[in-house]
Amino acid sequence: MNGAHDMGGMDGFGPVEREADAPIFHDEWERRAFALTVAMGFYGLWNIDISRYARENRDPLGYLRDSYYERWLYGLESLLEQNGLVSREEIAARMAELAEGVG
Amino acid sequence: MSEHRHGTPPSDTALRVKALESLLVEKGLVDPAALDALIDTYENKVGPRNGAAVVARAWSDSEYKARLLADGSATIAELGFTGRTGDHMVVVENTPRVHNMVVCTLCSCYPWTVLGLPPVWYKASPYRARAVKEPRGVLRDFGVELAEDVEIRVWDSTSEIRYLVLPERPPGTEGLSEAELAALVTRDSMIGTERALTPDEARAKPEAAE
User: Fold this and answer.
1) Which whole number is the average pLDDT over B8-19?
2) Distance (Å) from the C-alpha of residue B138 to the closest C-alpha of chain A?
3) What ipTM was estimated for this complex?
4) Chain B hits for A55, Cβ within 8 Å
5) Based on the domain organization, do B40 and B116 belong to the same domain?
6) Residue A101: its pLDDT value, please?
7) Using CB atoms and an 8 Å cut-off, which of residues 125-144 of chain B contact chain A?
8) What residues contact A57, with CB distance under 8 A and at least 6 apart?
9) Same domain, yes or no, for B57 and B128?
10) Would A65 be classed as within a structural domain?
């Protein structure tokens, strides 16, 4: 599949930027998104190629705008929805409930 | 969960992940303790120290090195490093004539079993885009200048085949133990974006191998 992810040889992205003492994860939500994705992968409902397709088969602007683990999250949500496990409506509803309880 | 200060709403993405985890736990699909264990494994246990042990063994034992270059996965597994991203490992050797460098242009394929999770720059667009087009320029970003007559081989990883660079053994390391050699092997030297450290460089930069 072609798409925004197929960026080998593309010009204009600028120099490689490295952080000094970069941590493995930059925020708690990255840890959780990583672990949820790996844990759900253990069920064998999808393989690594299907999960990549779920991350990359989307509008190019969204792909390029998202950070790395945001792409994972998008992919996981798509796979959960396709497999009838969790819908995006359920996620939105739970977000609203959690937001009520915060603060 | 109380890491958000009063009155500071969590970002939309953080909230989204929290909502997803809460739904998956409620449906009995994930166990929070198992998630914690996964995070601990990849944050604290699996990392470039594994790969450094492989490289130090190869520098010290020519038979191990020959096996490593012939069959990466099985020879890495001799040291106990196995896992689903290490199923098809290819080890490529740097020499005075050839410099190898690894990228994943399409995503972020990386040998987790020997290097842990990839750094942000490896997953980011500039490296993925440029490594295959102007590797010398990328190496310059990393402070590495290669002579014009050194051949650069760039390996584009896939989910099936992942690469580990066997860096050149630095000068001045005769007689060092495997443990002392391993301390010279940085993560980036095994991706191929820098050289392994000399003992003097390692002393000046003690955190480099972390």
Assistant:
1) 82
2) 7
3) 0.95
4) 107
5) no
6) 82
7) 125-133, 138, 141-142
8) A1, A3
9) yes
10) yes
